[in-house]
Amino acid sequence: MTNIDFIKKAVATAAINIQKTVELLQEDCTIPFISRYRKDTTGNLDEVQIEQIAKLQKEYEVIVKRKEAILKSIEEQKALTPELEKKIQQSFDLQELEDFYLPFKKKKKTKADVARENGLEPLAKIIMAQGKDDVDFLATKYLNANVANEEAALQGARDIIAEWINENIYVRKQLRRLYERKATITTKVVKSKKDEEAAQKFNQYFDWSEPLTKAPSHRLLAILRAENEGFIKFKVEVDIDEAYDIIDELVLKGQSPATPHVQLAIEDSFKRLLNPAISNETLQEAKAKADANSIQVFANNLGQLLLAPPLGEKRILAIDPGFRSGCKVVCLDEKGDLLYNETIYPHAPQNETAMAMKKIRSMVNSYKIDAISIGNGTASRETEFFIKKIAFDKPVQVFIVSEAGASVYSASKIAREEFPNYDVTVRGSVSIGRRLSDPLAELVKIDPKAIGVGQYQHDVDQNKLKEELDNTVIRCVNSVGININTASKHLLSYVSGIGEKLAENIVNYRSENGPFENRKQLKKVPRLGEKAYQQGVAFIRISNAKNPLDNSAVHPEAYGIVEKMAKDLKLSVNDLIANKEKTALIKAENYITPEIGLLTLKDIIKELEKPGLDPRKSAKVFEFDPNVKSIKDVKSGMILPGIVNNITNFGCFVDIGIKESGLVHISQLKSGFVSDVNEVVKLHQHVEVKVTEVDEDRKRIQLTMIL
């Protein structure tokens, strides 16, 4: 099987599209570049499909490499037959390959190995043949210094047969199917831990059983965490009689004197070898699916968070609220640069409200502030009420901003590099302000796991999680594009083809030579070669560039075509851009070249209509219910405004303006069956919810959605 055939089994597109995509990937083209600027080559595959092709190509390479290693190992053991070699060469299933290799795999000394050393393999073969021989009598011929009696001989032979059954590829395949269809996961509490406070969040799993196929990802991960923390024990099992029936059918040849011995070997093989191995395989496979599901939920949430509406280039006063330690205030200019910082004490115990109001008014006027960003942590609502009491000389918008991860950023190396002369409190406030003006630019500096928009992120495969989250960040950054003259090196590092080192070189070049005036200047950046230029140049934007296309998503390789379009319409490129009436006259098919096809040309015309358009919406002011300041104010039956701040497989969490977010269970999202919460709500969506239950002691609020 070729790599193209292997990939085509999972990706619904023509083989030629897969082949061309693989070729582009092998030429070190990035996924954002391929999906945006090579649509005609790939048959219009999107980023998700291209990512899938890239992953499957890696899987194929892993399988081929493993095959080579297995064949080499068996050959070195002088055990490779033409038939076995053919089976291995034709297999593209890692599990099946490991089954072929199992009899030849180096392992610790087994009971079967001891029996072979004691000369009992011929007896095992006679029993396994299941002829009419009197095996009890034959056993007497195999007694020696290490085999004291007939029972010891028969037991040794059964040990060998048990291993043969365990290594039988057909037995393993059929049992796997049984486990895949009918395995049950059963849990029991560890009695000595039952009353511990930390165990109570897992109390529903103290005595639990359900089919493994029906256990949703969040429940399986919760069970595994509870077991890992020592609160429960669990097992994955199938009906033992059904398992025996499967093996009997494949191993037994009818009734004979050997049948009871083979049956004993079957039972031993299942209990001692097959069940532990295949139940663990089944669990690991279920865990891998649960991981993939949770990682996808996390990636979806992260994508929505990164693409949250920005306020844009405004002057912002940001507040990290607090009681005793005061509110840390910073003033930022349109680029997010720090202009001033101060600490005010409007709340108890100092209660310097009048002085704090005076200072805020003064800062808003002095630094021409357009909007105020307040972190949503401790004292957030009290600070919001305080700010709204101030009579400003001009309208000032007030936003409550999630401060999740701000403390992680403020103590990070990135923050220390940006603000070496300021402490963590100032850095945290700056982050709260910047994530209002441009969430994407600010949040890329923070480890996604610290942002708090996933479920069980610490329980899933960390390598796969990192890979998926990195892909999500890359996808978001390149879908928006970045201003090369204002972007931090951390934001630049996610641009197609750039990476950390080139991002640093770009920032250094900018510092030494001033702002970039055109895209061609990128080529002057040290170590930024033709390939990196090709992959990255169209994702950067240069405001007020001499060539207006430098502030668009049009790739420089297509500038000549745009110039021809303008010339044919007797216009300059400047006059063509954003001129809907004129762009509507362009017939894309007239400009097809061997390099640039119809799909790319249609994208170019669409871009000319609205060059550099940010796909994100604008930030909107949101107001929580002013009467709800803590969980004590929340009562059943209340209808409250809220913001969706986390989405999981079992529902979504809604911020209603207090420390505790409320849960809208998936069953409460709308009438009828909902399999995907993202079908109904999105992160940061403004919603109305009804309170159905409040548990003050456990700090839990149950909500239903009003749609």
From TrEMBL:
Domain S1 motif: 637-706
GO terms under cellular component: cytoplasm
Domain of life, source organism: Bacteria
GO BP terms, alphabetized: nucleobase-containing compound metabolic process; translation
GO MF, one example: structural constituent of ribosome
Matches recorded under InterPro entries: HHH_9, NA-bd_OB-fold, Ribos_protein_bS1-like, RNaseH-like_sf, RuvA_2-like, S1_domain, S1_Tex, Tex-like_central_region
PANTHER family attached to this UniProt entry: 30S RIBOSOMAL PROTEIN S1 (PTHR10724), S1 RNA-BINDING DOMAIN-CONTAINING PROTEIN 1 (PTHR10724:SF10)
Protein name: S1 motif domain-containing protein
Species this chain originates from: Flavobacterium granuli
